[in-house]
Structure formats: C-alpha cells, structure tokens
Amino acid sequence: MAVATTAAPAQAEDRELLISGSEAVAEALTLADIDVVTAYPIRPYDTVMQAIAKKIANGELVAEYIVAEGEHSQFEIVKHASTVGARVFCGSSGVGWAYAMECLVVTPPLRVPMVCLVGNRALDDPGAFGVEHNDALFVRDLGWMLVWIDSSQEALDTTLIAYRVAEDRRVFLPIAISADGAFLTHSQALTLVPPKAKVDRFLPRYDRGDLLLHPDNPITVAPQANEDWVMEIRRQNDEAMKRAVTVIEEAYADFRRIFGRGPENPWFEEYMTEDADVILVGMGTISLSIKVAIRNLRAQGKKVGLIRLRWFRPFPTERLVEALGRAKAIGVIDRDYSFGSPFYAGVVANEIRAAMYNAERRPPLLSFISGLGGREVMLEDVYKATELCYNAARSGRSDARTHWLGVRE
Amino acid sequence: MAALTVEIVYRGIFQKNLAARIARGIVLSSRKAGRWGIAFGRYGDSPQRNGIPAKDFAIVADSKEELEQNMARYEPKEADVTIALDDTLAKGVESWAWYGLQPINKLTVPNGTLLMTSLQSFDELLKDIHRKDAPYTLALIRQKASFSGLWVYREDHTEARVLGALARLVPAFLPLDAVCQAIQEAEWGSELKVASARKAYDRVETRLVTPGEGNPETPYRFELPRWWEMREGIAIPAIPIGKPKEGGKGYVPERNPYFKKFTTRTMRPVIDFDKCVKCNLCWISCPDSCFDVMPDGTFDANMEACCGCGVCEAVCPVEHCITMVNEAVFDDNASQWEMWRRDKAAYRRWLEEKIGDKRATVRSHGFRFRGQYEEELKADLDIGGVEITAGIPGENAAHKTR
After folding, report:
1. More exposed terminus of chain B, fewer Cβ within 10 Å: N or C?
2. From the list A111, A227, A232, which residue is nearest B226 (CB)?
3. Which of A269-283, A316-330, A381-395, B304-318 has the lowest average pLDDT?
C-alpha cells in the first residue's frame, strides 16, 4: 500500500527541530533570505509574524520588518517591494485577509510573486479563531496559486517550493500557503531544517527582469486601461497559471533531488488509494483524523483511501480525475461552505464534480461539510461519511445532497 | 428602414450635458411618434478628459425587438445621422478609448447625414472632413459651438435647434410635431425652445457630398497588440529620453507613439518667435510636454502632442507672443518654427492672418471672467438669436420663465 507521507531519514546536514507550522515557515523564510516582510497581527497568522521577528532580532535573518497599520497596507507594501526586486513575505487570516482584498486582487495581474501564509480562520461573525478554508478560497478565481499543507515539515518545504514557483519568470504569480489555524499553526512537530547551502542550490535569486521598477528600466506599472486591453491582460494571467503546472512539477522534482525528500506527486497525497473502493478527499489537517479512521476501517475490511489535495490552484484536473476514477464512490469533505451553490455543497466538492463531468469513469460523488470554525473532525464523522459512500457505491448513484458532519441536530 | 441610429460627437465634459440632452430628446421625440428608443454614452469615453472627443448615441425603432438588436454595445457600427457639436471635430475623433483617428463621418451610412453646428462654409469644412466613398448629406446649423464650463449646461437652445434640424432631416422618425411636443413636455422644455426648434427646422442648410469629396489624408491608425505581444504585469515601457533638435542643440522629447492629439484640441497656440524671450515658462507649464526646444532656444508647439489647453498662453509673460487660435482655421499640423525659419516675412503674414481673424479666434472653454455669459447671451440676441430662458438642468424651466 502506498504511504506517501513516510518521512525520509534525516540527512546528515539537516537539523531536527521541534517547531510549529508557523515556526517552520519562519525557518524557510530565513533559508530563503527574504528581503521584506510586513506584519499586522491576527490570530492564527500572528504566530508566523512573531517567529520571523524573533529570527530578525536574533540576527539569523536580515530583512526589512514593517509593521503596517492594517492588512490592506500590509499587502500593498510587499506588493511594491516585490516590484523593485525584493523577495517578500506576508500573511493574514480570516477577516484580516478579507480586509486586504483590494490588494490581493491587484497582485496577480501585476505579476507580483508574493508568497504569503494564510493561517486559515473562520470568517466573522461570529468572531471565532478556528479553521475554515473560506478565507483563502476568496482568491481562488483571481490568479493566486493556492496550496494547502498538513504538517510542519510540509510547511517548511512548501514555503521554499513556493518561492521557486512564484518567482519563475514563466509564472510570476502570488502563492498563498494555507495552514489550518491551531492544528498546524499552533502545534509543534519534529521538523527537518536543511542547511542554507542546499537551499541556495534549489532557489535562485529573484530576478524581475524587464518588469523591475528601477531607474535603469523605466516602465509604468498599473495604468488605467479600458475595454481595449483588459481581455488581453486576463489572457496573460490565464497563460501564466497554465505554465505554472510545469513549473510546479519541475520544482518538486528538483526539491526531491536536492533535499532527498518530498512527494513525487506535487498535487495531492494519496493514502491507501490503490485498492480503495471509497476515496475520501479533503484539504489540510483534516487528513490526520481521516487517516486514523481509514486504518480502523481497513481493520474491519473496508477498503477506504484518502486523497489530500495540496494544490487547489492550479487545480490538478487530469491527475485527480484519473485517481478518483478508480474508486467506486468518492466522498469530499469540505472545511468550507458555499451557501446556495449546486447541491449546497462546499467549494472542493463542487470543483471536483465539475472536473469529473467529462470523465469516462465517473463514480458517485458525495459531499460533506465538517470541521467548521475549528470544530474537531471526529472518527465517527469519517465513519459516517464512509458508510454513506458505500451505500452510493452499491447503488451506483449519488444522493445529490450535502451532509453536514458533526453538527448538532 | 425601421430603426434610426444617431451618434452625437462632442467635446468631453464641456458638452457632456448637451449631448446627453440631445440623445434624450431624440428618444422622447420619437416616443411621441409611437416608437421605442434608447439613449446611451460610449462607456469607454469615461472618465472624460477636457475636450477629448466623446460620443453619445440615440437609437429609435418601430419595435422593442428591433431596438434590442442595437442594445448592449459600446458603439454602434454605423449611424444614420452623425451629429458633431463642435466644428473642429471635422478633423476627426481621437477618443480616450484608443481607436486611432476616426474620421467624423466614419460611422455615417451611405446617403446618411452629418449634422454640425458651424459658422464655416461647406467647402471650408470639407477641407477637414475625410473623404468617403459613398455620398452623404452635410447639414449645418448656423451657430458656433455651444461650450460650457466643466459639467455645466449652457442654456442656449442648442439641443432644441439640433432636434428641430433632425425633424427636417429624418422626418420619418422625428416628425416636427412630435419633436415640438417632446420639447414642450420635457423637463427642460418651454415655448421659446419650441420656437428655436421650429427656426432650426426652417433654417438648417444642407449640401450633398459626393464620393471622394473631402480631406484626402489617410487617418492615423494603429493595430492594438495581441495578448502575447504585450509586456506582462500591466507594465508599459517608459517614453525614452528625447534628442537634440539638430546639430547638438535644442531638445525634442520622445512621445507616446500611439496616442496623438490631432483632434483633442479646439484651439492651438500660435507663436511669435520674434517676441519670444526664451524664458521656458511655456515649456515647463505644458501638461502634455508639447513644446520642442529649438536650436535657437525658442519653443515650438508640436501638434502631435498639443491638446489645446491654453496654459502656455496664460503663463507667457510677453504680450502677444503666444496666442490661442481656433483650431478650425488650420489645415495641417506643420511646425510653425520651420515655417518661421524658412521665411520670416511670410510667417508674419500667416501669423497675423490667423490671429487677426477675430471670429475664428474668440473661443472659450467656459468663461474667463464674471459676466461673460451674460455678455455672450446679449451678443447672440443682437445678431438675431432667440431670448434665452432661465432653465436649469433637471428643473422645470417653464415656471421660471418671466
């Protein structure tokens, strides 16, 4: 059985640290030698902000650390810094990310390869701190690359990969790395930190080329333009996102070659899917309880597997359709909502439904919503989802509705 | 023909409300004749810049279905009637929306009509209006351009005159009775305005323009780049640094190679190079960097870049050194300085002729002193115009009339 998450043995030069996902990101930022970082506190993103501040205070990282007066300025500042050639980092959570929306919108068309961390947090109201994915999903249509992670190690590795991908001249698009609030941002795990020399081999300097704002390269950026120009500009963004597919695959291949770890399939993790009748799909740390449940279900003879989606943008349509087509039923567990959407489902479920529409093999797909606002996804929730999926597998039909798991009813 | 498309070409902002009123008046008039209609502005012209040519449209049709075919667009592909509210637009239309130089009659259909407000003769206008390979009618309302200040509407009955003229030109769609009824009942209507419309109906002058008649120049045009030809990141290369004029002296800046300002101005500066004290003020103040520095240190206004704002005239410290002159009296965009260098006596004759033509020279974007409006109204009345009401846009003028 394929278990893609097996940790590679520590390389001799690697240091093993007990750190949170946020601290792991800060380690990666230090290795990537970022130039400008902006900060404005909001939980749970503030943990990474604090970790970077500590790195700078300790002299481990030399970077401009700018405390903005709000998220809107926070994202504007790094956008401008990036256009003059700085490697930048930023981040936020929940409604803080929403407050930056105007800047988030303009970042992809200006082709700013910003990397930021979204500490996923429920949107207000109510003012909850726990994880929901709706915040990062705000920008899913706008040219942001979106990736979800589920461990401190993946946080560190993905941050390095994100700079490599975003700053590739073929791409030049921003990346938001999503880390589930609390489960990843606030819990510490043993994490391998590679030496700087290896990172230097993997990550070239950021070269903005002919788009650099500099007196030696006089250009105007972000003029007003009308209907004669907008479609061409959007089409350029579309092409950059398409090119990102190749660039992401190259980056992961290089990462494995240089660091001796990392997945062969950048797009999603497959856990016990080879012979699975039922494949569950989710993003982020929801994978942890699902994996435990799967092991228990397997002990009862139920062939269940998990696909944990990493990259949501660009969406790995072909590979995912191929992998899911092998199952007899698919159950997508969303940690988000899309009120009034088809089947009143979550975003991931409907995205996969759309991806599967032209597939030759199209197993029944059930949609679930769970773990909202940071509520723990219980093993019982996964068992229930699995049971419903088995029913659909037997009948060959989806029940065409969305099940809320773990809600009091 | 069961639908009528009318375009109204005007100077951005100064004639914005005038154009909108004409478009509304066309629709409301045709409604009185039982038709349906829509009025809209070319969205790409917004936000309007001072004097930049812009367009409004009115489309009327026998049925809602026919009307629908003409809706949901920025700009119709052809117009049965083109209205130009300023005769300097005879030189063409370079809109804010990057279409190159569009001849004023470009959308006018074969056997259609181009209606202008102008004091120029037909032949003078046809020196500027580009050739067309189909016949059309050139119609004139004898008045100067109705210019107001920013956003202000000038209550000089131009809208009523245009509607009256249209009743003569396209009576099938806009019968005179319907036009008069619409004017009378509209929010800005009055008996005096109806009288103005009837006068224009009687007085509008027409002349058939035959194929090939008109300005033979090929209008300036360019191809918009394809998406993969454009630099990414919405980045535009800066205009490069300029070069000396000649022999290492003077300075000619590089300019936007696509957006020329051949038709954005209603006036242009005429420069008396013998009076120039080389103080630089025009060069510094020009918002469009239109001045080229000549080898002798004087300044030549480059007509590719001048938008006719008049700042140079206002800042020039020497009396009669820079004079703004009505654009309509010029037939080309040639360098004044080169003309002056070639033959100073000939240049002086040319300059005095241009400046001396008072009728052509007096021109205003709005008003330059308190009371100018009242003076102009009186002057209009003295030469046979109608008395002006005190109507205010959006308010009922009738009960304000004394």
Report:
1. C
2. A232
3. B304-318
